[in-house]
User: What shape does this take?
Amino acid sequence: RLPHVVSHSHIPLLQLSQQIIELQEATQIHSGLQSGSVNRQGFINEVKTVFKTWKNRLPNHFDDLSYWSDVFLWREQHFKTIIKAYEGTAHGEQSNQGMIAVHHLASGITQYASIARKQKLASVSLDSLSRIHSIPSVPVVDLFQKIRQQVKCYL
Assistant: This one.
C-alpha cells in the first residue's frame, strides 16, 4: 500500500517494483517462445497484452531518463527476440505478429526520444532515434514519427 503523498524517497522502491513486473512480463513471453507455442492464439494474445501494457507504461516528462534507458533497452531485447521468432514465417497472421513487434519497438524508441527532447537532451534523443535503423522492415508511420522527432530536436 502506497502512502497518500509520494516523495523522492519512494522512487527507488517504485522503480524496483516496476523492474519486477517487467521481469514477470518478459518471463511470460520467453516461456511461450521456449515451449514452441509461437503460433498458438493464446500466446499471441498474451504477447499483444504485454505490448499494450508496455506501450501504456511510459516515462513522464519529469522522470529520470537513466532509469528509463535501462527499461527501454530491456524491452528492446525482448522485442528483437520476438521478431526473430516470427522471422521467415510466411503465414499472414504469424508474420503480422513480427510486424507488430517491429512497430512497438520503433514506437517505444520514438517515445523515449520524445521524452529526452522535452528534457532538453537533444543528443540523447538523436542517438535513440538512430537505433531505429537497426530494425528490419520498419513501418512507414514509425519512420515518419522518427523524422518528426528529429526535426523537433533541431528546432
Notes: Residues 92-118 form the longest helix (27 residues). The mean pLDDT is 86. The radius of gyration is 17 Å. The helical segments are 11-34, 41-56, 65-86, 92-118, 122-130, 140-154.
